Amino acid sequence: MEMIHVEEISTSALRSRQISSIHHLRQISFTPKRSKKSEVIYKFTQQNLHACKLSLTPQLVISLFLLMGIIFVPIGFVALHASRSVVEIVNRYDTECMPDEFKSNKVAYIQDISVSKNCTLAIKIPKFMKAPIHIYYQLDNYYQNHRRYVKSRNDKQLQYGLHYIQTSSCMPEEYSNGYPIVPCGLVAWSMFNDTYSFVRHGAPLFINRKNISWKSDRDHKFGEKIFPFNFQNGTLIGGKTLDPTIPLSEQEDLMVWMRASALPSFRKIYGRIEDDLDADEVVFVNIGNNYNTYTFGGKKKLVLSTSNMLLGGKNDFLGLSYITTGFSCIFLAVFFALLHVKNQRPDHDTSHFSWTRKNTIS
Amino acid sequence: MPNRERKRDKLRWSKIYTFSCIRPTAQLDTDDAPFSLQGPGFSRVVFCNQPGFHRKKPFKYTTNIISTTKYNVLTFFPKALFEQFRRVANIYFLFTAIFSLTPLSSLDPFSMVAPLAFVIGLSMLKEGLEDWNRFIQDLKVNKRKVNIHKEDGVFGKIAWQKISVGDIVRVEKDQFFPADLLLISSSYDDGICYVETMNLDGETNLKIKRSLETTLLFEDGESFKDFKATIRCEDPNPDLYNFVGNFEYAHEVIPLNTNQILLRDSKLRNTSYIYGVAIFTGHDSKVMQNSTASPSKRSKIEKKMDHVIIILFIILSLISLISSIGFAARIKYSMIKWWYMRLPDSRGYYDPSNVAYSSLLHLVTVLILYGYLIPISLYVSIEAVKVLQAMFINKDMHMYDEETNKPAHARTSNLNEELGQIETILSDKTGTLTCNQMDFLKCSIAGVSYGMRTSEVEAAAAKLMATEISSFTENSPKSHQVARAESCLGNNDTVQQAGIKGFSFKDDRIMEGNWVQECNADTILLFFHILALCHTAIPEPNEETGSFNYEAESPDEGAFLIAAREFGFEFCKRTQSSVFIQEKYSASRQPIQREFKVLNLLEFSSKRKRMSVIVRDEEGLIFLLCKGADSIIFERLSKNGRLYEEDTAKHINEYGEAGLRTLALTYRKLDEEEYYVWNAEFVKAKTTIGSDRENMLERAADLMERELILIGATAVEDKLQKGVPQCIDKLAQAGLKIWVLTGDKIETAINIGFACSLLRQGMKQICISTTNVDLVSRDGNRIAKENILMQMDNASQMIKLEKDPHAAFALIIDGKTLAYALEDDVKKQFLNLAVDCASVICCRVSPKQKALVTRLVKEGTGKTTLAVGDGANDVGMIQEADIGVGISGVEGMQAVMASDFSIAQFRFLERLLVVHGHWCYKRIAQMICYFFYKNIAFGLTLFYFEAYTSFSGQSVYNAWYMVLFNVILTSLPVISLGTFEQDVSSEVCLQFPALYQQGSKNLFFSWYKIFGWMGNGLYSSLVVFFLCVNMFDSQQFCVGGQTADIAVIGTTMFTCIIWAVNIQIALITSHYTWIQHAFVWGSIATWYLFLLGYGMVSPIISQDAYLILMEALGPAPIFWIATGLITVACNLPYLAHVSYQRALNPMDHHVIQEIKYCNKDVEDKLMWTNEMNKAIQKTMIGFSARVDAKIRQLRSKLHRKHSSSMVS
């Protein structure tokens, strides 16, 4: 009997539902047709725009991790290989080029103009080096990125020369002997002035010192008609002097130097050797050891390096970190796969609802 | 009387009303002498009809222009600017901006000033727009037109703002009073007028104002030609209920009181027109004096955010300090050796001999530099997001009420997320849960109950019964759905009730004149006569229907008159002394009009709880007709008048249980002689002067209202608003506690409690009252308090001892008891008890008590409270609560004006909280967390770089990158997260109200989450910086052989950060519309486009970023490879963490997302509905005992019906 009543009630409820759904239908059919644009606006204001919902299901997560692993590990190996294929020779010379008698007083040696600063290094090429071979000087413990140093330059002056007089940023290398300095500022003033020349088989090896700077520097940043003026004329001589007959746009060493390095240990390009160097070949380098790094204990190194399409220079770090990340991804994929297997949770598993959990606990 | 054109209003109310005939007439009020108005506070002089005097000093008063704006053109800038800098973070940004103008800053001043200007400008713009809207609103009010006396008796229209003190104003029916006026005369002969003060106090009933006898003569425009008088009165003050002043006219001084004062913003009703003199204009008017700035509220999340910002400040100071110490060490020990620095510096920035000074300056530098830790754009983004969220709330069609054409309105946008964290709702009853519309539903006449329709309580019971039965038949998904569908449908008896408003009665026995055939026809006739005669209403002919509308003082009375009309006794006319009734079903079957002479009228007051009229019918017989509360009436019955007492009492009880309001109707026949003896005494009492008059009148009335003969009772339904029970059920499922605070009596409140299933089966009702305490005794207070404490102790003990974990308690307390319970030493105990109870109902509470209870809950529990109400009596509560919601229903706008959100119907609260609240909470919480993450990830890289520059304060990024980071490159995705994110759709929110708990438990803005995100930021910054630095190290990075400089490394790092934070937000987002896609991917694309474009402009502007993408980075594969690696590496732990959490401890919305994602809800409907029910079961313990009884009753009825149908 009881069941019959139930049916009675539920059918009446059904009926009322039908009625209401009819009402609903009617309402819909009566609403005026909206244009497509206003339909979108309506959906927008009702926060009802079509959306794809991302749900991090185990399958998705596992395949995502796996995918990343599969992509990253090969890239890592390729990068590592590329890095390993680069031949790089680093020679520290600031100590070797120091005559023994000055070992105790290096600063006096470097500041003494009368002493010859030339020294010769023999470099044995360990592996075949394909041209072009880049020549770098490397300075350590040199803070080119220091705020005082970075700021001490004037881009407008470099481009427009003496027409541009507002050079207060160049302090304390703004004026010398009452005349403005071009190029002004500490950066230009402290320019690196060691020189290298290479000898192979008794004959000088040609070093191409053109095109070592960025093209944009030559074309736009350093003025074509701006010549060095009143440079290194002060009481304190910093680094290299510039030939006042060559316009700034052709002073590539300056351009390279003026690009402030990010780290206190940096390399800057000096030139290129455009011949291949064979393995076990010995190359002699005549170094003009002029630059003072002795005061602050900085190191000077000469670097020869071939280059590589992918990475440029020799650096295993990139490849290694790619491999590490890739393997972490694969590891995570495996981990989640195991978790998924062990903790078999179907997609529609509802036992994790807080209400269900609470009930089972209590 | 010549020139009188008052055609219809020939009423002398003063004669009919007994208790309010207090007209101060000069000759009578000897003891009520004019006030001596001297001294401070009583300096105002008004020269009536001579506004010229008020044009210049010393009588120049405020004009009638009102302005609610915060600023004007001149003050806007300084004031709004000052407002902005009340935020601590903004002050910090201001300082950094100022210092950035000095050489101390390593950043471009532009990069510091521009964002600040942008942020502050935007906030000020918002402030300005809001103020502009207020200005426009004021303008509308100021430009309203009204008639004033110009000269020589001619009236003309002017704008409200032009009214000056002393002007004679003519206000027409249904217009608002433009200023506080002294009533001179009205369209009624005796100078009364009706005023609706809804805007002032929320009361809908009409109030009567009376002019002075002296000024009655001035009844048309002409007569004001030479009118001159002086008013001396109090200065402007906010007291609405008092007025002190004297009226000096024709060498007479007459005292004024509040009876003659018409307050601005109240409305003239039922009176064709009035004349009045403006006394207080503009901001002097009482209503303006009363307006208080609503307290500014801040959400919990925002308060917590302040703490987080303080933590960030500490971190910022810490790393700045570390940097400065590092700097000092460097400058002292190593930097002097760096010849290329050319130390010492002439300006002292790098002075090895004065390290302290240099490092102090440096501290300022790095404080500015690391400022990116504190998200400058956070405030402005949050503000923008909240405005958009508010827009969504305002536009939501599901919260739009078609009947009243009112959408929901977020009046303050800064509390949106608080909507998702509510734990307690404090609700008003009348007008909020109920419609404040009375429907005549049932009556009991001569011991017989009439009226077939069911009340909503009964209907609800029937519906719930259907649900319950279907839940017995588990596992049949169909019945489940049916039941659910039905409970979702809301009121399906609306079809049934589509009839006359205020009348839902249906019973063929007495309708359509059939009552003549009933055996007690005489008594029924009398019953109808009482309905039609015993009231104070005025009929208002309705042109459309040809019948009458009634302007009654209370909705009950209106329902009675409509009922009488439907029964065939149409009250059609009221004159000075008579009431006319059109009887449709007389003996002759012809409509006839009967006249009843009204001899006396004994008004209703809440103290008396009854009202009576004494009438003489056409045959000359005198009757006293009386209606009142049963408790009062029953003790006044005569011996032979108790014939129907037993039956009627039973019926009244039944009606009460069905949630109806009842009144008992009685009469008494009077002898001519008896009446005259009493009347003599009554008139004597009436003419008595002095304070005793009221008492004497009451005594006289009391003498008359005895020996009554009971004939029946009426039952009127206080209609619940649409969908209220369903809404309350849902809110309860969402884990919210609902307290009802009502001014109604305890019985009604309990009835309504059952009707909206606030009280359920298995709930033990704890009633705390003072009824059994003798309050008259000297220690009444103390004893009462002790008694209450004892009751509460007992109740607490009971709750403690209760073993059943599912037991629920309900606390019911009345206002008198509450007064004690709210005292300082008791309130804690009261609160503890109340918190243990599932629902709390407070009856008979005053507006102040409402506010006090709200404060108690808010401060005592420390949880978020929401107060919802519709009347002026709820304003206190609305302002006190964390969130005030106003129902923009029939009552005035006071509650709405004070509220933070307004909705048209209570049922919209469900969507407002469960959908919008839930969304807004999650959006804001995630948004803020993300903000911290992204700024830490970015800001810390600057710090690491410092270590490599010997803490010099050099930034690794181009200034422009830093400007754009917060403003353009990462702002839109986070705004889209805060605006559009939906963890689950609105339907699911409504289907699973339990999801709301995530907000009240604050799962998304807990310290765990905040620190988690900060940790994520720290990790990302480390990854970005160290991977980048090591990858670029010192070797050449491109085929050309060039090595990386600051620009290359900085740009690469920045690119990585842009990718990492944007991918991060893509991972947070779970709801992708095209907007999210556009913003996230657009932001990344914008960065490259910017880099390209910025690199093209002159190197003077772009500096080291000149052609950087085109020339240096673009062709270098390492740039792209590094970006990919770092982006993935940054987001790997987050992804792993989230996946792990999801796999092992998924949250409710995760499971739902998965179900939805796999379409399981469509494929497996049974599981889906089962889950829905399971989520509900936790809170749906059962239904009320009374409802249960009804269920049994209905069931047996069904049973009977069914068996009878079987037989047939």
From TrEMBL, chain A:
Pfam families with a match to the protein in the record: CDC50
Keywords: Membrane, Transmembrane, Transmembrane helix
Gene Ontology cellular component terms for the protein in this record: endoplasmic reticulum; Golgi apparatus; plasma membrane
Annotated signal sequence range: none
Membrane in keyword set: yes
InterPro entries named in the record: CDC50/LEM3_fam
Transmembrane regions: 60-82, 317-339
Location(s), subcellular: Membrane
Taxonomic superkingdom: Eukaryota
Family to which the UniProt record says this protein belongs: Belongs to the CDC50/LEM3 family.
PANTHER family: ALA-INTERACTING SUBUNIT 2-RELATED, CELL CYCLE CONTROL PROTEIN 50
Name of the protein in its database record: ALA-interacting subunit
Species whose genome carries this gene: Zostera marina (Eelgrass)
From TrEMBL, chain B:
Catalytic activity: ATP + H2O + phospholipidSide 1 = ADP + phosphate + phospholipidSide 2
Any Pfam family hit: PhoLip_ATPase_N
Domain P-type ATPase C-terminal: 896-1146
CDD domains: P-type_ATPase_APLT_Dnf-like
Cofactor: Mg(2+)
Keyword Translocase: yes
EC number: 7.6.2.1
Domain P-type ATPase N-terminal intervals: 46-112
Gene Ontology CC entries for this record: plasma membrane
Source organism superkingdom: Eukaryota
GO biological process: phospholipid translocation
InterPro entries with a match to the protein in the record: ATPase_P-typ_cyto_dom_N, ATPase_P-typ_P_site, ATPase_P-typ_TM_dom_sf, ATPase_P-typ_transduc_dom_A_sf, HAD-like_sf, HAD_sf, P-type_ATPase_IV, P-type_ATPase_N
Active site: 428
Name of the top EC class for this enzyme: translocase
Subcellular location: Membrane
Record's keyword terms, sorted: ATP-binding, Isopeptide bond, Magnesium, Membrane, Metal-binding, Nucleotide-binding, Translocase, Transmembrane, Transmembrane helix, Ubl conjugation
Transmembrane region(s): 308-331, 360-382, 928-947, 959-980, 1010-1032, 1044-1067, 1079-1097, 1117-1136
Main location: membrane
Binding, Mg(2+): 428, 430, 870, 874
Binding-site positions, ATP: 428-430, 557, 604, 627, 661, 742-744, 844, 850, 873-874
Similarity comment text for this entry: Belongs to the cation transport ATPase (P-type) (TC 3.A.3) family. Type IV subfamily.
Protein name (Swiss-Prot/TrEMBL): Phospholipid-transporting ATPase
Organism: Zostera marina (Eelgrass)
